[in-house]
Amino acid sequence: MHCGDVSAMTAEAQKPPTKTKRQAVKRYIRVNRTEDAGVHVMRFVWPVVGLITFSILVYGLARGFLHHSIPLEPDYSELFLGDVQVLPDGRVCVKYDFSPRPDGFVDYPQLQDWDYKKGVFEGWLLGQASLRAALTREVTFEFDFKLARGNNIMPAVGVRDRGTTRLAVLVEREGKASVWKFLKGKPYRLRENRTPYTFIAGEQHHLTIKAVTVYPDKDVDPEPLGPPPVPISDLEPDVANHPPLPPEELPQDTGPAPYTDVVVYLDDKEIIKDRVERYVLDGWVMLDAWNATALTNNVTITGRLWPGWVFNEIRIRNAIREKPPKRN
């Protein structure tokens, strides 16, 4: 064999077969396609994974927030032991007849909604009592009453500062009616009328007080009607068994100040009305008399609940539900 033949054979041996090269190219193209497909799949998967993770985080945060906040539509029947009705305009109507429960578990369960001194006598609330619920802007306060001692009744609305600040109505059995404003315990008689309507001790009558706070500047809405967007934990604790109230309105130096219009009816007949300047109707309602004692029944309170009170009551009920049982 010649040297030239050996070189030719070596070169021919070193030359790769054409079929093997084509298979390698196909394999390379297939691997690239697989890798590209993986990249495209991951481009789709990662956003989905991120979206799912984000949704889980948002759900957890929202669940924790809602757990400590007021529901959009609270169950008002859980906040009162009286009969509750929610009106279409957002006001709440609560009725009390102070009747005992037939099972005797609690003699007069409706009293738990009230801060009272004496209690119930023959199904009638006796003496001074105030509702443990804060109302704002407007209220209609009506009830049946009988005088047990003395010659007058003096119910009040917009009560705050542990009762030292309130808008009161004095109705005397000799026929006089007057509107009073108490500020930090100091009484101011604003208006007095002599009416033809008189009553004696033991007679049953019906009294109605309608009061509405008006803000002359219609462009200003100082208190939202809906629930405030704040956590319950930011609210102040209860004071003297009564609900937290909005900050007291300070008299305005300039511009029109809010005022409260009040109208009083005795047995559905108007006996007095007045406009109380610089008084905002934020607070609870109170049954009272001046050096006298009255019996009260069939009480109806219709008004707008202050959102802070609703928040506070739901917080208390949630805490009671979540409190672990005592271990023996």
In short:
This protein has 328 residues and is α+β, with helices and mostly antiparallel strands. 24% of the residues lie in helices and 35% in strands. The chain has a 17-stranded antiparallel β-sheet that branches.
Question: How would you sum up this structure, described in words?
Answer:
A hairpin with a 2-residue loop joins strand 14 (259-266) and strand 15 (269-277). Helices cover 24% and strands 35% of the residues. It is of the alpha+beta class. The protein has a 17-stranded antiparallel β-sheet that branches.
Question: SSE layout and pairings?
Answer:
Layout: H1 3-14, H2 18-67, E1 83-86, E2 92-96, E3 114-116, E4 119-121, E5 124-126, E6 129-131, E7 135-149, E8 152-153, E9 156-160, E10 165-172, E11 176-183, E12 186-194, E13 205-214, E14 259-266, E15 269-277, E16 282-287, E17 293-305, H3 307-322
Antiparallel strand pairs: 1-2, 2-17, 3-6, 4-5, 5-17, 6-16, 7-13, 7-16, 7-17, 8-10, 9-10, 9-16, 10-11, 11-12, 13-14, 14-15
Helicity range: 10-25%
Low-confidence stretches: 1-13, 61-72, 222-241
Q: What is the straight-line distance between the termini?
A: 108 Å
Sketch the major β-sheet: 17 strands, antiparallel
Output the helix-strand order. HHEEEEEEEEEEEEEEEEEH
Structural class: alpha+beta
What portion of residues belong to β-strands? 25-35%
Taking all residues together, what is the mean pLDDT? 75
Which overall shape is indicated by the principal axes computed on the Cα atoms?
elongated
Question: How many alpha or pi helices?
Answer: 3
Please tell me how large the radius of gyration is.
37 Å
Oligomer kind:
single chain
According to DSSP, the number of beta strands is 17
